[in-house]
Amino acid sequence: MLIKSVRGFTPKYGKDCFFAENSTIIGEVIMGDHCSIWFQTVLRGDVNPIHLGSRVNIQDGAIIHGTYKLSSTKIGNDVSIGHNSIIHGCTINDKVLVGMGSIIMDNCIIKSNTIIAAGSVLTKNTIVQSGDIFAGVPAKKIKEINIERYSEEIKKISKNYLTYSSWYKKLNS
User: Fold this and answer.
1) What is the pLDDT of residues 114-156, one digit of tens each?
2) Alpha carbon distance 113, 34 (integer Å)
3) How far apart are CA 49 and CA 148, in angstroms?
4) In 19-146, which residue ranges form alpha helices assigned H by DSSP?
5) Are strands 2-4 and 24-31 parallel, antiparallel or unpaired?
6) In whole angstroms, what is the distance from residue 61 CA to residue 83 CA?
7) Does the model's pTM come out above 0.90?
């Protein structure tokens, strides 16, 4: 893994995090406990901060960034960012599933207990309400979910990644 300081900022992370060998974490990146940063993932906090809560998994090939002097990136607890997604200068609250290959652009707000379907593109300033499923290009609300049911499903995916990361931690101990 590459952990690099830039502009006087060094990434900070909580306890029991997993970083794949070829992941990259740069600059003002602050993450909570039990996060996993997977293969070929880039968190680039060089132009604006990136804050991750606890139990966040950023899956293979994802890119997290912001816009200089305009948009930082904030990700809550129990969030799964699918493979090859781009998360750029937005806010993602707790218990959110971002499907593979999704793009979430500047100033979007994804409220808790939501699902962004694979391949979705959320254009600048999109707001996703709690309990919504968004899909498409550009993404639009396609359905409401039962929050109690899906909240636990979303959290389960986050917990699964704690298990997966433990396999790799055992290899390195």
Assistant:
1) 999 999 999 999 999 999 999 999 999 999 988 888 888 888 8
2) 20
3) 32
4) none
5) parallel
6) 6
7) yes
